[in-house]
Design goal:
This protein has 97 residues and is an alpha+beta fold. The protein has two helices and four strands.
């Protein structure tokens, strides 16, 4: 079977400047991850800095028919994260396969 699907992967380091505990971090991060999954149909998980209260690394994966569609969807994910008032995107690493 031949497939022309494209897989996009993104890692984003997020900063939570107002948080003072892991509980506050989870209060902000959990709905953000759920929204990305629901609205953009992405696979999303916290993949790093789980034990730090003001930083998180999330991994996002996307499958689309073209690289353009994959890049566009991942860019929309970053836009959604940046529009959230309690989170600041510190860095982003992207990859496509």
């Amino acid at each position: 079977m031949r497939s022309d699907a494209c897989i996009g992967v993104l890692f984003a380091e997020l900063h939570f400047p107002e948080n003072r505990s892991l509980k506050e971090k989870r209060r902000v991060l959990r709905p953000l991850i759920q929204r990305l999954r629901r609205d953009l149909h992405l696979s999303v998980a916290e993949v790093g800095d789980n034990d730090l209260w003001n930083v998180a690394v999330i991994g996002i994966a996307c499958v689309a028919s073209t690289k353009v569609d994959t890049a566009r969807t991942l860019e929309r994910a970053i836009d959604q994260i940046e529009s959230h008032g309690e989170v600041r995107v510190e860095s982003v690493i992207r990859g496509e396969h």
